[in-house]
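re: ur question from yesterday

yeah so i grabbed the chain u mentioned. its 154 aa long if i counted rite. heres the sequnce exactly as i have it in my notes:
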Amino acid sequence: MSQDTNKPRIASNEARAYAKFLRISPQKLNLVAGMIRGKSAEKALIDLEFSNRRIAKDVQKVLKAAVTNAENNHNLDVDRLVVAEASVGKTMVMKRFHARGRGKASRVEKPFSRLTVVVREQAPAVKAPKAAKAEKAPKAAKPAAKATDKAKKD
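ran it thru and got these structure tokens back, copy pasting raw so excuse formatting
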């Protein structure tokens, strides 16, 4: 009477990594995650390297971890990896207070986020040879046509 084992939630050509408690709001983190979605892993790492956002370094760490998981755990080719998913969610919110005038206080919320990055190995793209284009006849010069119209009016 044992339970069945859980099946893996990712495909055989995928690997993932995630970070649980990133100290940034999910909305701001999603801007950086959207920057790498659909790009090759190599291009995404370069984009994160030169991003001005503070959280880009943490996203870069998670992406590097996903690439390493793909290489070591799933034997995938690193050169053909693409960022298939970069999903963002919210975790906890620290509640603090800020002293205000007349003995009052206002609430300060410090949100945390989580990030899940899934990289997928793409099949090598086979490029079809380009068809030879038919040569086009040169177009008649329009300024010359205008000059003849002016000659007729005179």
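noticed a couple things. The mean pLDDT is 89. also Residues 6 and 12 are 15 Å apart (CA to CA).
anyway ttyl
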